[in-house]
Amino acid sequence: MPDDPNESGVPGESEFAMSDDELLAELRVALDESDPPPERLSTIAKAALTWRTIDAELAELAFDSTRDLAGVRSETMQRQVTFESADLEIELMMSDEEERRLVGQLVPARASTVVMITGDESAPERITTTADDLGRFSFDDVPTEAVGFVVLGEDGQPMLQTRPISL
Amino acid sequence: MAVDNDDPWRLRTALDGDADAWASIVDEFGGVMWHWARSQGLDRSEAEDVVQTVWFRLADRGINIDDPRRLPGWLAITTKREAQARRRKLSRASPIEDLEHDYESAFSGDDSAGVGHDPEDAVVASDLRHRLADAYWKLSERCRELLTLVWDPAMSYAAIAETLDTTVGAIGPMRLRCLERLRVTAGVT
C-alpha cells in the first residue's frame, strides 16, 4: 500500500482534518479492502463481449427423461436432461413449474459461471448465475421457449455449450 | 487518446467488438457496481450474479442506450433493478444471509490487510478503515446506496437522482446527512 502523507504524523490527527471528499475516498478504500469483488468477476465480464451466441461444438444430449424413460409413468416427474462434453456434464431439471425455476448440477462439481441464453439468435439475451462449490445452480423465470446453456471456464470463455432445449 | 465528448467511455467502439475499449469500461465501473449491488443487501454470491448479468446485458443490449454519456447512470439503475429483482426472489425463497456475519468473515481471513511500511501509520490507517467499513454497514440502506453512488465522479447528480428515485435537489442534503452519520458512527469527528 502506498504511503499517504495524510496518514502520517500524530496518530489520529489526520482524521480530524478529513474533508467529506477525503472521507468518501477513504470509505471506498475501506470497502475495497474489506469486501473486494471476486477476481473472476472482471475476467468473466471482459470475456462477455468476445462470445455472444452458442457457436462452438455442442455437448451431447446424454440423457433425456422424456426419451430414455418413455413409458415410465409418473405424474409428478419433471423432465430431466443431461448434456456431456469430454470432461464435464451438466444436469438440468425444472424444479418448480409455476415459478419456472430450474435447478442444475455440474459433474464433476465446480464453482463455474453458468449462462442461460434466451431469445432468438439475432438478439440473444444472456442470464448468468454461479454454481456453488458442489456444482449446484439454479435459474428462475426460465422461458418456456427453447433456451441454451453455457458453462464458462476460468478464462470466461465457454467450456461446455448445449443446444437450445425447452424444459 | 483524445476523449470523445459524445462517448467518453468509448461504449460504441467497445460494442463494435473492440476488446480493449470494453475492458477499460469493465475496469472503470466493475468495482463500483460490485459495491452498488452489495449496498442493496445482497450477499457476495448474489451480488456476483447481479453484476455479471448487468455486464452481459450491456454486451447484448447496450447498443440500445441512446446517449453513451449516460452509461454510468444506465449501469447504476440496471444494477439496482437487477438487485431488487433478486431480492424479491430471495425473500420468497429464503431469508437473506446475515450481513453482519458476512462482513465479519470478510475481515477474519487476513489480519495483515492494510499493513504498510511504518507499522504505526499502518495501524492508524487500518483502524480507521475498519471503523469506516464497520460504520458503513450500520447505515441505512439508502445512505449506503447514496455514498457508493456519489463517490464516483462519473455519476452525475441527475443519474444519482434517477437511481435513488428522488429529485436532484435532494441529493446534496442527503449526501451531507449520510456523511455525517458515517462520521459519527465511525467516530471520525
If you had to describe this structure to a student in words, what would you say it looks like?
The complex is a heterodimer of chains A (167) and B (189). Chain A is an alpha+beta fold. Chain A has helices at residues 13-16, 20-34, 39-47, 65-68, and strands at residues 60-64, 80-84, 89-96, 101-107, 113-118, 125-130, 136-139, 148-152, 158-161. Chain A has two domains: 5-34, no CATH class; 47-161, no CATH class. In chain A, the strands form two sheets. Chain A has a five-stranded antiparallel sheet. Chain A has a four-stranded antiparallel sheet with strand order 6-5-8-9, with no helix packed on it. Chain A is elongated and about 75 Å long. Chain A starts with 12 loop residues before the first helix and ends in a 6-residue tail after the last strand. Chain B is mainly alpha-helical and 189 residues long. Chain B contains nine helices and no strands. In chain B, helix 6 crosses helix 9. The model of chain B is unreliable at 95-117 (pLDDT under 50). At the A-B interface, helix 1, helix 2, helix 3 and strand 6 of A face helix 2, helix 3, helix 5, helix 6 and helix 7 of B.
SSE blueprint:
The complex is a heterodimer of chains A (167) and B (189).
Chain A: H1 13-16, H2 20-34, H3 39-47, E1 60-64, H4 65-68, E2 80-84, E3 89-96, E4 101-107, E5 113-118, E6 125-130, E7 136-139, E8 148-152, E9 158-161
Antiparallel strand pairs in A: 1-2, 2-3, 3-4, 4-7, 5-6, 5-8, 8-9
Chain B: H1 11-15, H2 19-39, H3 44-61, H4 71-93, H5 99-108, H6 119-138, H7 141-150, H8 157-164, H9 168-186
Helix pairs in contact in B: 2-3, 2-4, 2-7, 3-4, 4-8, 6-9, 7-9, 8-9
